[in-house]
Amino acid sequence: MAHFYHDRDDWKPLRVLFVYRIFLAIVYLAMFYAEAGDKEFGSYNRFIFAITSHAYFLFVALSLIPLHFKHPSFQLQAHGFTIVDITTLLFLMHANGGIHSGLGILLVITTASIGLLSSRKMALFHPAVATLGLFFETFYANLLSQSQSSYTHAATLGFTLFATGFLTHTLSQRAKKSEALAEQRGDDLESIEQLNDYIVQNMQSGVIALDKNHRAVVINDTASNLLQHPEATAGMPLKHLSPELNTHIKNWLKNPNQPKQSQFYLHGTSLQLQISSIKLGAYRIAIIIQDNAEIMQQMQQMKLASLGRLTASIAHEIRNPLGAISHANQLLNESENLDKIDTRMIEIIQNNTNRVNGIIENVLQLSRRSKSKSQSILLKPWLDEFVTEYVQIKNITIDELTYSVTPEDLAIQFDPSQLHQVLTSLANNALCYGRDTQGHIQLSIIAATDERPYIDVSDHGAGVQQENIQQLFEPFFTTENAGTGLGLYLAKEMSECNYAKLEYRESEIGACFRLTFTPSQDETE
User: Fold this and answer.
1) Signed CA dihedral, 188, 192, 198, 199: sign only
2) pTM flag (> 0.90)
């Protein structure tokens, strides 16, 4: 016999059946005493009715003791109580005229209850006992000529008991399987929910889920840090987390054609965030937040992979003639018949040889996806040295290249060698295209700060034609036959690798390129 009920909670069905039995026992006694002057109940054998009803009441009352102490076992008590119920009903049926008394319907309830609580064998065993009892009672009643009970009625009731026991057992097994499956799926869903929470909390992107009132249902640590609200918790209104983000979501909901992705600077900081929003239902919204500087750097590194294949193939060919030039220049420097002009020319050759070699190293560094060695740079002394060197190399006057720094203690974060290359490229571009109609050149470099530090490199030339603006920073785009089209492209790539932004700005006179920096660590602190 299978053991279906052995836990503490499994005794509840027996407690429910105890309530049902005590109710029946009281009804039996009430039927006996209420009809004391009438012969309807127990009319065939009032003595058996009285003894059986009182004995059953006493038995049910005493059954509370083993039920309370849960001893003997659940199965033994269930089957024992069922046998007693069947026996009691058979005696009461006999005392009231046999199967025609109508009490046989209670046998259906009894066999149904045990069918729910036992194995299939026992679910059919008790109907068999009850059916045998019905046939014996019918045979005995007919033998004593107390009544003319029909074997057909007994067989019909017995068949009903078998069907009831079988069906209730089958339904109970299906219910148990469904309950077990539901419990398993509940555990699986709980595990999946825990896994999802773990994934969301450990994502490098910020995640916020909003309800219909724009309150955060879910917010991970990354989102809290990016929005600079480390104390943010679920239930906090979005407008308290970020007014800019709240405004964007409201505008996006009002205008479905608005792009789902956008960028904005977090108020009071230089942090640029990129957000993507999507509707999860009629009232819920999911927001993905990323640091735009990191995204741009990742895109930059991917683009530089193609540049790496180019530079790797030509680096050796460039370095060979460059090495020969440098070696010849060293031999020339050892000559005894050199005047000051020759010595200066040799120095310029050596400086530019070193500069070309540095450019190659920077390009290779980009192609290998190496991180820039950014550091804090004071722009005033750095530009003093840069301009002095540049006007000397390009043979222009200091009046033709003006520069200023406001404030004078302005500092930025950048790799010094790459900043030198970026400004050299911008200045060379201005010298090439920035002459006025008389052929005069006027180049200016202005370093200042607005919300973020920046450098403007501008000229007084004709500027950039409108149709060429979109292609300015594309590789190999140039309007000169002798140009390579890599200067501005590499300048922009190196700027983004240093978390800076290089862009063309339209100007009333000439062209203007602005390089916007990340503030130095000293300044942000």
Assistant:
1) positive
2) no
- CA 402, CA 351: separation in Å to the nearest integer? 23
| 84-139 confidence digits (pLDDT tens) | 999 999 999 888 878 888 888 899 999 999 888 888 888 899 999 999 999 998 88
Pairwise CA distance, residues 199 & 226, whole Å:
18
Amino acid identity at 489:
Y
Going from the C-alpha of 126 to that of each of 60, 88, 160, the distances in angstroms are 19, 14, 12
Region 372-525: CATH code: 3.30.565.10
- Supply φ then ψ for residue 183, to 5 degrees: -65, -40
Structural tokens at position 412: 């930025």
* 424-429 CB contacts, 8 Å cutoff, 24+ apart: 424/390, 425/487, 425/488, 425/490, 425/491, 426/457, 426/488, 426/491, 426/513, 426/515, 427/390, 427/394, 427/401, 427/457, 428/487, 429/487, 429/488, 429/513
Per the document, the length of the chain is: 525
Written as one letter, the residue type at 432 is: C
Superfamily of domain 206-291: PAS domain (3.30.450.20)
Q: Do the Cβ atoms of 300 and 496 come closer than 8 Å? A: yes
Give, as one character, the DSSP assignment of residue 71. Answer: -
pLDDT (tens digit, 9 = 90+) per residue, 366-410?
555 456 778 899 999 999 999 999 999 888 888 888 899 999 899
